[in-house]
Design a protein that fits this description.
- The structure is a single chain.
- This protein is of the alpha/beta class.
- The chain has three domains: about 1-105, Rossmann fold, CATH 3.40.50; about 115-310, Rossmann fold (3-Layer(aba) Sandwich); about 335-420, 2-Layer Sandwich (GMP Synthetase, Chain A, domain 3), CATH 3.30.300.10.
- It has twelve helices and 13 strands.
- It has helices at about 1-5, 95-105, 115-130, 145-155, 175-185, 195-205, 210-235, 250-255, 295-305, 310, 335-350, 410-420; strands at about 10-25, 40-55, 60-65, 70-75, 80-85, 135-140, 160-165, 190-195, 240-245, 285, 360-375, 380-390, 400.
- The chain is globular and about 65 Å long.
- Keywords: ATP-binding, Glutamine amidotransferase, GMP biosynthesis, Ligase, Nucleotide-binding, Purine biosynthesis.
- GO terms for molecular function: ATP binding; GMP synthase activity.
């Protein structure tokens, strides 16, 4: 809504009462075309620090937050509409109904779009982009996104796709052997595993800034891909021209350039979404067949492609791996090993409690602090690890997961078994 207001001559300023999270809004115009009969009061999900202070000519306010901020506007003659909250997320219970009303009743759009259409269109696009004699590399991380992207491209060009799984030393517990087993036995994808952990960890030594970590990891990934492409060139007599990545739409948004670029008003939440900062002189051209989809849509697409359901339900894992879940130097002490063990215990406890599929993402974070405790008859001074679990629908907004703390005994028992082992 802010961009709409500014473009048409209104004014937006930093809000005194910034609104984030769950908020009540009141529909103030009973005859609003935007809300139809779905007016009155409703709970929505806010995420903004600015507010509209002057409307463009011809607009009227049709909804306000309980704090008084403008939440929705419309121009009846021009049929322009703007919202200052997220109607598309599950945390806005009536939001999807508002969108349906807008699309089908106000705009007159027909509901004839299917996920199969996306598959057919992307396969057609890839075939037209990649020549009949050209080869493609796919960066497989073991996650849902890259796996679905690889399967889709494999459907389009067959064995001219060459997948590579890089062990960068920042993976979860036993991730390499588990993922490679799935690739070989269930997905039947041509995958080469490269262990580059020593190189990655060497470059990350002493680095604490998370954004710098991303850039270093991105640079090293591309170096591995370039080396892999050179090896393939010797083997098949032709250098691959393309690199496939499982970029999603939320990744694109989070990787927006900062203010002043002319493209967006959003801040860059993180540098390039998948592996970190991609170098400007990268020799490989990108193929990102999922970049306009959300995670739930990717899972539906993967189901059409017969990707195993157990794989599609995996929780998201960051491209830079555990580097961004260790707050500080990843090579200091035994931070990575501690984090792997804690993460494995946490995830297994959630699975044992039957909660894994209800949670969008659960993970552990290694904190840069220590605390005092008692073990046996002695005082200890050791590391602190935080456990996080969130709910979401598409990764654009999230809320904490209110699961029962009854699962804690299971985690304690698992932790004891690890200590005994």
């Amino acid at each position: 809504m802010q961009l709409l207001v500014q473009t048409l001559g209104g004014a937006v300023e930093p809000g005194v009462r910034q609104e984030y999270g769950d908020m009540e809004v009141e529909v103030t115009a009973p005859s609003s075309a935007l809300y139809g009969e779905d007016g009155k009061r409703q709970s929505v999900w806010m995420s903004h620090g600015d507010e509209v202070v002057r409307l463009p000519e011809g607009f009227e306010v049709v909804a306000r937050s309980v704090q008084g901020a403008i939440a929705a506007i419309e121009h009846r003659e021009k049929r322009f509409y703007g919202l200052q909250y997220h109607p598309e997320v599950t945390h806005s219970p009536q939001g999807m109904e508002t969108l349906r009303h807008f699309l089908f009743d106000v705009c007159g759009i027909k509901a004839d779009w299917k996920m199969q259409d996306v598959l057919d269109e992307e396969i057609k696009t890839i075939k037209s982009m990649v020549g009949p004699d050209e080869h493609v590399i796919c960066a497989l991380s073991g996650g849902v996104d890259s796996t679905v992207a690889a399967t889709l491209v494999h459907n389009a060009i067959g064995d001219r796709l060459h997948c590579v799984f890089v062990d960068n030393g920042l993976l979860r517990y036993k991730e390499q052997e588990r993922v490679m087993s799935t690739f070989n036995s269930d997905l039947h994808l041509p995958v080469t595993c490269i262990d580059a952990s020593e190189k990655f960890l060497s470059e990350l030594k002493g680095v604490k800034d998370p954004e710098m970590k991303r850039k270093i990891i991105g640079r090293e990934f591309i170096a591995v891909f370039d080396e892999f492409a050179h090896m393939l060139e010797k083997k098949i007599g032709k250098r691959p021209e393309y690199l496939v990545q499982g970029t999603l739409y939320p990744d694109v948004i989070e990787s927006c350039p900062p203010p002043g670029s002319g493209r967006t008003h959003s801040h860059t939440i993180k540098s390039h979404h998948n592996v970190g900062g991609l170098p400007k002189d990268m020799k490989l051209k990108l193929i990102e067949p999922l970049k306009l989809l959300f995670k739930d849509e990717v899972r539906k697409l993967g189901s059409i492609l017969n990707v195993p359901e157990s794989f599609l339900k995996r929780h998201p894992f960051p491209g830079p791996g555990l580097a961004v879940r260790v707050i500080g130097d990843v090579t200091a002490g035994n931070a990575l090993e501690v984090l792997r063990q804690v993460d494995e215990i946490f995830i297994q406890a959630i699975k044992d409690a039957g909660l894994y599929d209800e949670i969008w993402q659960a993970f552990a974070v290694f904190l840069p602090v220590q605390t005092v405790g008692v073990q046996g008859d002695q005082r200890t001074h050791s590391h602190v690890v935080a456990l996080r679990a969130i709910t979401s629908e598409d990764g654009m907004t999230a809320n904490w997961c209110p699961f029962s703390f009854k699962i804690l005994p299971g985690m304690i028992l698992n932790a004891r078994s690890w200590l005994m082992w």
